[in-house]
Every structure is written in structure tokens, then in C-alpha cells.
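U., I forgot to send this yesterday:
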Amino acid sequence: MALIEGAEIKALKEAHSDQYIHSEKLHLFIEEALNQAGCKPSDLEAIAVGAGPGSYTGLRIGVTSAKALAYSLQIPLIGARGPELLVAEAIKQFEFPEQAILHPMIDARRMEVYTADYNVLAIPSREIEARIIDEDSYSEPGEHFFFGDGAPKFKSVLNGPQHHFLDLELPSAAHFCHLLNAKMTNKEFEDVAYFEPFYLKEFQAIKPKSVF
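Result:
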């Protein structure tokens, strides 16, 4: 959770866990971030939320909370998908050749990722999809750059001279900084009543591992 003012991150509270702690931590993080920045909820001008794809539970809790805040405060809701956030941060952090192809990868299962293709202007040439990666993937000409938490497991598979891996793994609320200002300026707001997470794949229940 980040509190952003202009181009400055005033507060940042995050945790990465496989234990589905979203319902326990999210509202606590919101309160702590507001206190850290010396702000009240009524000071907020917009609510931004990552729309997915990713964990069904995390997306559902995050989007529901964001919608409730935006509705109760009567302020705009802004959504961005994880690959979009990763690309915005990659362009901010790294220099790319003009014809580079950027591939944000969010980990799915086994050899599958949620991914898309972007140019250096953050314009997509392939929409977000669930894709199984093998040694024949990304064999087309061009300089391919991979990043996101799904990218590292393919270093031994995508090992050609045109394949490059960046040290940028998880989408972060801090990555909203540039996108948030652009979306505010362009009034790219979501409809609070109808906005839904971008699950991409249908929910599949998994039996939890025994703790005993």
C-alpha cells in the first residue's frame, strides 16, 4: 500500500507472503500509511488498485476494499493491471534499445505465466494472456527483456543472446507513481459499481496443505 503525492511516495507499507494475509493486513497498512504521511482519509483525491491477474483471494480483497474506499469518500477509482505496472517501472529504471520488446511475467503455475508484450513506449503489441513458456518461445528476431516474479524460472530455457533478464520482480504499489499521475490527468477512472478484478483464469479451489 502506497500513499503518493505528485511524484513523491509519502508512505509505503508492503508484505509478500504465500499465507493469504491480505484480510489481516490491508486495512492496518492503510491506517499506518495515512498516519506516517500525516493524512486523513478525507485528504485523498483518488484510490488506485492493482487489478490483476494474480491470486484470486488477494485480488478480490484488494479490489473490494478499494471500491469501498472510493465510494465512501466519493473520489475516483483508478485501476492498473500488474504487467502494466511492471512495464512502467522497468521503463523508469532501465534503458532499452529503441526496438526492444518488453515481457512482464507474473508467476502462474509450473511453466506458465501471465504475460504480455510491450514496446519501449509501454504500448502493448500482445494483450495479457496466460502463456506456457518453452525453449521455442520468443524465438522471433529482436531484443527481448523479461522481468517480474515469473521470469527467473525461465533463465535456463530462454538463454539465447537476444534474451535479457532484469532484476525487477514483484509489482508494487510504488510502481503506481508515474501511471497514477497520467491516469489522473487523462481522467482514466473506473466505474466503481462495475469494476471487477482481472482474474484472466477461472478460480480453482486448491486443498490447503496440512499444518500438522
